[in-house]
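User: Please fill in residues for this 262-position structure.
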C-alpha cells in the first residue's frame, strides 16, 4: 500500500510539472506572437516562409517521388528474386524466415509513400492554384506537369506493390485469403490468420490506437496555437478533434459490444 501511495505521488508531481512547463511554453509563445504582430515582423517571416515553400516543395516532391518509387521497386523485385530462390530450395528455413521479414519492407514503404504522395500532390495543386506556381510557363510548369504524372504513377505503384507482396505471402501460406482490391480485404485476410497472428494484429492495432491519441493531442495543441499565430481558424483544430473522437468512440463502442459477447 505504501509503495502504491509513493507511486501515485510521483504521478501527480510529474503531471503538475509537465502542465506547468506546457503552460509556461504557451505563455512565452503567446508573448512572442503578440510582439511579432505589433512589430509586423511575424507577417514578414510568414510571407518569406510561404515563398520559400512555394519554391522548394514542387521540385522536392518530384525528387522524393522518384527516389521512393525506385527504392520500392528494388525492394519488391528483391523479394520476388528471393521467392524464386526459395522455390528451388523449399527446405531452407533461414531463407524462408528472411523472405517473410523482407516482405514487410516494400509494404511499409509503399504505405508511407502513399501518404506522402497525396500530401505533396495537394501542396503542389494548392501552390499552382493560389500562388500561381507554374502558370508563367518554363521550368515551373514542367515541374507541375511532372508532379501530376508522378502522382498517378505512384498511385498505381502503391496499389500494385502490396498486391504483389500479398500474392507472394499467399503462395508461402496457402491458407491465407484475400485480394487487396477487395474493400473487405482486411476482414477476409484476418479471418484466414491463425490465433497467434490475430493476437499480433490486435496488439499492433491497440498500439496504433494509443499512438493516434497521443498524436492527436499534440496536433490539437499545435492547431490551437496556429489559430493565434497563423490565423488558421478553427478548421484544422476541428479536423483533429473529429479524428480523435472517431478513434476513441470506435474503440470504446467496439469494446463495450465485445464485453456483451457480441
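Assistant: Residues filled in for all 262 positions:
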Amino acid at each position: 500500500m505504501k509503495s502504491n501511495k509513493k507511486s501515485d505521488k510521483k504521478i501527480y508531481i510529474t503531471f503538475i510539472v509537465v502542465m506547468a512547463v506546457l503552460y509556461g511554453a504557451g505563455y512565452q509563445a503567446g508573448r512572442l506572437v503578440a510582439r511579432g504582430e505589433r512589430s509586423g515582423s511575424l507577417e514578414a517571416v510568414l510571407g518569406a516562409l510561404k515563398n520559400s515553400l512555394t519554391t522548394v516543395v514542387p521540385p522536392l516532391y518530384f525528387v522524393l517521388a522518384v527516389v521512393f518509387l525506385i527504392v520500392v521497386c528494388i525492394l519488391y523485385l528483391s523479394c520476388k528474386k528471393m521467392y524464386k530462390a526459395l522455390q528451388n530450395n523449399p527446405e531452407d528455413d533461414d531463407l524462408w524466415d528472411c523472405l517473410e521479414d523482407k516482405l514487410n519492407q516494400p509494404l511499409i514503404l509503399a504505405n508511407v509513400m502513399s501518404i506522402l504522395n497525396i500530401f505533396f500532390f495537394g501542396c503542389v495543386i494548392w501552390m499552382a492554384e493560389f500562388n500561381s506556381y507554374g502558370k508563367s510557363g518554363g521550368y515551373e510548369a514542367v515541374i507541375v506537369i511532372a508532379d501530376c504524372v508522378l502522382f498517378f504513377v505512384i498511385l498505381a505503384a502503391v496499389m500494385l506493390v502490396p498486391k504483389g507482396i500479398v500474392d507472394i505471402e499467399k503462395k508461402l501460406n496457402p491458407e491465407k485469403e484475400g485480394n487487396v482490391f477487395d474493400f473487405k480485404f482486411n476482414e477476409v485476410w484476418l479471418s484466414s490468420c491463425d490465433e497467434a497472428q490475430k493476437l499480433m494484429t490486435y496488439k499492433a492495432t491497440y498500439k496504433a490506437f494509443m499512438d493516434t491519441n497521443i498524436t492527436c493531442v499534440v496536433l490539437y495543441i499545435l492547431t490551437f496555437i496556429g489559430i493565434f499565430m497563423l490565423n488558421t481558424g478553427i478548421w484544422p483544430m476541428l479536423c483533429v478533434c473529429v479524428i480523435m473522437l472517431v478513434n476513441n468512440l470506435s474503440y470504446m463502442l467496439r469494446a463495450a459490444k465485445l464485453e456483451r459477447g457480441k
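For context: The helical segments are 2-39, 41-88, 93-102, 104-130, 138-172, 185-191, 195-229, 235-259.
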